[in-house]
Structures are given as C-alpha cells and as structure tokens.
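Appendix B. Chain record.
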Amino acid sequence: MWTKPGLPNTAVLLAVFLKSTIAVDCGIGLTYPIFSNQEELDNVVANCTVWIGNIKVATDWNGPLVLNNIVNLTGYFTLETSSNNSYRPSQFLTSIEAPELRYLGFLDLWGVSNLTAITLPRLEQVQSLTIGAIKALPIRLDAPSLVNITDELEIIGNLPIISLPSLIEASSIRIAGDRSSLEEYSLNVSIATPGVTLDFPVLIRAGLINLAGNISSVEMPSLVSSSGGYHLYTSSDSWNLRLWTNGNPLDVKFPSLQNVSALDTLNGTFRFRPSTNVTFDCRPLQRAVGIDVSGNVTSYNLDSLTYVDRLLIETEQTIDCDPAAEAWKRMHPRYDNNGGGYGSVSSPYEYYCNGPFEKEKKPFPKVAVGLSVGIGIPVWFFFMFALWHSRKEKRKAEEIAKIPPPDYEAEMAARSAGGGEVLPDYEPRRSQGSENQPGSVIELVDMSRPSPHPPPPPGYQDAVGNGSESATTPVVAGEVRTGGIAGNDEPRSASVD
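Structure tokens predicted for this chain:
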C-alpha cells in the first residue's frame, strides 16, 4: 500500500498544535491526588490546562515545586491534611511556581517552615490566597499580574515586602505577623515580628482591611472605599478598616479615601502605637460608620467628614474637643448630647470626647449686677479723686521743702542797703524781779550793729514824766544795758557797768 511521504509528520504536528490550543479538563471526580515529588505531578498534569478540583502537596515533598501547563485551577492548591482535616506541613518544600496559572480558586499554605518564594507571574484572579508561614526565613510573594481577589488575601508570617502592583479590588485583606493579632481584640506586643512593607499602588476598593503587627510602611494611594466586605469564614463586617501596629511610629496616608464602613484604631489613629505624640488627619475621608481615635493623639482634623454614625475620641493626652463637637453637631444637628441620642428615642448614633471638662457656670442675679455697677462706679471715682488730691498736696509740700532758708546776715545787709524795713533790735529777756527791784538780764546778745534810731535829746526823759522809762546815763552802742521795769508809779532806773 502506497502512502504519501511526509504524512505521518504532518499528523504529529497537527496533534501538537491541537494540544496547545484546546483546553483539556482534568481532575474530574471526588478523588484528589496527593503529590510527593515533581515527577508525579508532571505525569498527571502533562495534558491538562484546566484542573477541576484540588491539588495537594504531600508532607514529604522535598525541594521546589513547579505547576506546569495548568491555566485554571478551580479548587485548592494546598497541603496534605490529616484525618481530622488539620494540615500536615511540608517541612522541606522550598518554593512554589506556576508559570501558566491565570485563575485560581484557593491557595492555602500553612506551616511551611522552609518556603522562601511563591512565584505566580501570570495569575490574574484568585478567590482566596492564604499563606501562614511560621518561620524565621523571609518569604517572597511575586504576583505582578494579580488584579482581583474575590474573597480574601490573608498573609501571616515573615514577608518583608508584600507588593501587588496590579491589584485593583479585594473583598478582604488581612496581614499580620502572627495569627493572634488578627483574631484577638488586642495586639500582642510580646511577640517580636519582623517589619513588613505593604505596597498596593492601584488598589481602589477593599471590603475589609486588617493590618496588624510590625508594619514598616503602607502605600495605598488609590484606595477610595473600604466598605461592604466580610470575612470569608466568620462573615464579620463589624469593622472594615483596622490598623493595629507595634514597633516604630507608622505614618499612613490614604489620599484618595472617601468612604469606609468603620475605622478602628489602637494607640493612635492612622499612626499606630506611637512612641511620640502624633496628629490625626482624616482628610479626604467623607463618610464613615464609625471613627475611634485613641492613644497619644495631640490634635486632629475632621473637616472633610460629611457623615459618621459614631465618633469616639479617647486619647491619653488632654485634647480640645470643640472641633469634634462642632463636626458632630454639623452632621447631627438634632442629637442630644446629654440624653445620648435623639431625646427619648434610642438611636445608633454615639459621640464621646474625653477632653477637659467644662466647668459649670452658676447663674448670677441681674439685680445684684445692676446694684454693684451703680454703687461701685461712684465709689471708684471718689477714691481716684482722693488719691489724686493727696498726691498733689504731697508733691507741693516736697517742692516747698526743697527751697533753702535765707541767710540772716545777708538778709540784714540787703535790707540796710536797699532801704527796706529793718529788722527790730533784739531785746534780751529779763527775769522776774522783786517788788522794788528790776529783773536782771538772763540773756546777752551782741548788739554791735549800730542802731538806726538817733539817741533822745537831752531832757527827754524828764519831760515824759511818771510812768516812763528813765535813765541816768545814755546807752552807748556796743555797751551792755541793764534795766528794770517800772511799776506802781515807781521810777525806773538803769545802770551801766
């Protein structure tokens, strides 16, 4: 029988082409194989592009794992489990790579102590991606094409850098250094965990964001909304954006954030567990179900808020509550601060701020104020006038006291030369004499100054008569004169020693 040369070669090439272009479904059924080495895995998936079901890695796998050919894995890529469905970690699995994988149901890896890299270069969508690494060695996650996480991204362990440069939307993002930080209501700071850098440059929407542990930095510049998500297993939507951090102060900025269902904080707001005082600024956030601010917060800014159901500010520092009260009143003008709601009607709205308490002002009677003003003003004016007059008299007396008294001799010479009134001669005082004797001089004064009056003419004394002063010898200038006082019609006499 004759055959055309080259026909078998053409058939082989056609088979290879069809194999590369036609999707082949594998893994149909309830039996899911557990692979122990690379050779077993390659033999099973060699002709498959779609794997319906799970792929499990045995606990004795040793070395790297490469999932070839598979484009879509609908079930779990996970580890071997025991009879009670607990994971049996693969202690010697070092790396995982799926070069063709674009769609994945669940990547669930727990307790991988020697895993160093997860490489998914073409992965675009995953329902859930969970990595729980209890180890000291760092893990590198490489998924540059991942756009959508429909349920949950949960990473626990030592991943120094988590960068998803193409991720736009995620229903849930949970990242922590240890499991207890995600499940408990307080951050376990006794567990030392390495710092992690989070980079989600194009993430726009995330239903739930829970970041806990030693976080070095967070970059989510395009995040607009964090609301409407839920935890895959607990269906919890009590909070939607929570950052619990320890270690160094963390500066977190969401410049595009406009809507969240709740903001929950620990020891700070967007800067968590600070060792120094920090500032809370929620701009450009507009709407939130609840905002809780606590820790070492010294100031805050709520100007961009348009609506919030719950606003709680409980800081360790004394803080001014007036801006918060004004923002709350703007959003809830009918809210009764004293009654805790809208009067007697219960409401879900809550406001609290632990700033300095305002002292209660006691009412002061208006009548008493009027009387005090009416009486006090005249009394005040009288007091001020008396004080002014007293100071004026005091200044006048001080000015007079400063004028020195005139010199006596100079004054005498001035009066003699100028023809003014001459001061009278000095007459010494005399003691009281006996009945018939004149008193003696008790004080002597130098009368060397010539008298301006001429002596009386002769016979003047005789012409005066009784009761007049008489002298037997005229008084000469410069002599001491003694005499007595005449009385009872007795003649007076004078003698000169």
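Further analysis of this model is presented in Appendix C.
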